[in-house]
Specification:
This protein is 32% helix and 23% strand. It is built from twelve helices and 21 strands. The chain binds flavin mononucleotide and fe (ii) ion (FE2) (2 copies).
Length: 408
């Protein structure tokens, strides 16, 4: 039994599908409440516009909705806001059924279109900010909103209905067939979680998108996942505004020192580095033991840090797992401009520091070209002084001291 397409504005229908059982999304996200792949259909007296499609394995439900609303000859346009397979999966079959429909995508999506659909000779046209589509009584403005969540991502705005098709922006992995935010259960955790995992690495692009959205009077937000936001959509825009703008006291720089230690050698080094960095005006330093800090807190701390240092002993020729866990958290963060370094105590071979440094460099963090700070076993007074000096120097660099940084 297929549910009927749901009307969300005049002649605009939800033709998406529900995936209540999915528990992990894109490898990195847990989806305790399942998800939905939202797609929409706009009817006009000059033809039909399909707005996005769904994951391939759910395409039967999607086509069932389309069948209930129009014939394939009526479909004039297919807007693909985001070409990731959870939204483009049904596109090859849709093109097959509606060969005359023109696919509208961003220029960045053209390189991906063929690779994702494996379909030759697609009838497509590219769109970007300020371009408009007028069909019947609907006027749609396109907005380029790259990296939210892939480089090719778009949003669009239907003037007559004050409706924003936001792509993955304002989405949540939260299945609830009641669909509208004023009807579904409390999905606030899913909304926040989605932002943290999908949007946060691209805060700068979130701010740019919000600027574009500001041009329009938004009465309804239709994202690609989770509830449609029709009650107080401004609330969700405000949340994104707040999350994407760092609130920090101006002029002060935050340095976070994470360390791991078995015999307190690396910890002693961390302590001296902290004393050194604290002696530099305008630097606030905090120290964290990696053995007992939880991942969400790591992410928060890394996010608010202008710079961070990782201290690790060498264990079996490497840095132990908590260090790599910290490094893997950087995947969820905007890294541009952050300074980073590494230090540690070792017994004989001391590989950990170099391993960390090379990882930091490959993540494109700013790694100042300071002498790697490695100390054999228990640091003596002279070595602790070297740690102090390292702290001073790193803090000065964080404060803007000019140096050549190797970004290779
Ligand atoms: C199980 C184990 C394996 C180790 N493997 C190495 C190693 O491969 N290379 C090395 O340089 N030191 C190795 N060490 C020595 C530690 O790096 C050294 O004791 C260091 O001072 C510990 O610093 P911490 O007190 O901060 O933990 C190892 C120590 C332990 C306990
Ligand atoms: Fe996506
Ligand atoms: Fe998506």
């Amino acid at each position: 039994m297929h549910p009927l397409p749901i009307l969300l504005a005049k002649d605009i229908y939800f033709i998406g599908v529900f995936d209540p059982d999915i528990r992990t999304f894109d490898i990195v996200m847990k989806t305790a409440n399942g998800s939905s792949y939202n797609a929409y259909l706009i009817k006009t007296d000059e033809g039909v516009i399909i707005v996005d499609t769904v994951k391939k394995e759910f395409q039967d439900d999607f086509f069932h909705h389309v069948d209930a609303l129009c014939s394939y000859e009526e479909i004039k346009y297919v807007i693909i806001h985001h070409i990731e397979p959870d939204h483009s999966g049904a596109l090859p079959e849709l093109i097959r059924r509606a060969p005359h429909a023109k696919v509208l995508i961003s220029p960045q999506a053209t390189m991906m279109l063929k690779a994702l659909t494996n379909t030759e000779e697609i009838n497509f046209e590219t769109i970007w900010t300020n371009k408009q589509l007028k069909l019947g009584d609907k006027t749609i403005s396109f907005l380029t909103t790259p990296y939210l969540h892939w480089p090719e991502t778009m949003s669009s705005y239907v003037h007559e209905d004050k409706l924003l098709f936001s792509g993955d922006v304002f989405g949540s992995h939260y299945y609830d067939k009641r669909l509208f935010n004023d009807k579904v259960g409390d999905f606030s955790y899913a909304f926040t979680y989605y932002y943290d995992h999908i949007m946060r690495p691209f805060q700068n692009y979130v701010r740019q998108a919000l600027k574009l959205y500001e041009r329009f009077d938004i009465g309804l937000i239709a994202p690609l996942h989770g509830p449609i936001l029709r009650e107080n959509p401004q609330y969700y825009i405000q949340l994104y505004t707040q999350w994407s703008h760092k609130q920090k006291q101006s002029g002060q720089k935050i340095l976070s020192i994470f360390y791991l230690t078995s015999y307190k050698n690396t910890q002693e080094m961390a302590q001296s580095i902290m004393e050194g960095s604290e002696s530099v005006e305008g630097i606030i330093t905090n120290m964290y033991d990696l053995a007992s800090i939880e991942e969400p807190n790591m992410i928060k701390i890394l996010e608010e840090s202008d710079g961070f240092l990782i201290g690790s002993p060498t264990i079996n020729a490497d840095a132990p797992k908590p260090v790599w866990d910290l490094l893997s958290c950087l995947m969820f963060l905007e890294k541009t401009g952050k300074c980073a370094g590494a230090f540690g105590s070792y017994g004989w071979s001391g590989e950990a520091v170099e391993h960390i440094l090379s990882r930091l460099k490959s993540l494109k963090l700013k790694v100042p070209p300071l002498e790697p700070l490695k100390i054999k076993l228990i640091p003596n007074t002279i070595e602790l002084q070297a740690c102090y000096n390292y702290g001073v120097e790193f803090a000065q660099i964080l404060n803007g001291k000019m140096i050549e940084i190797d970004m290779a």
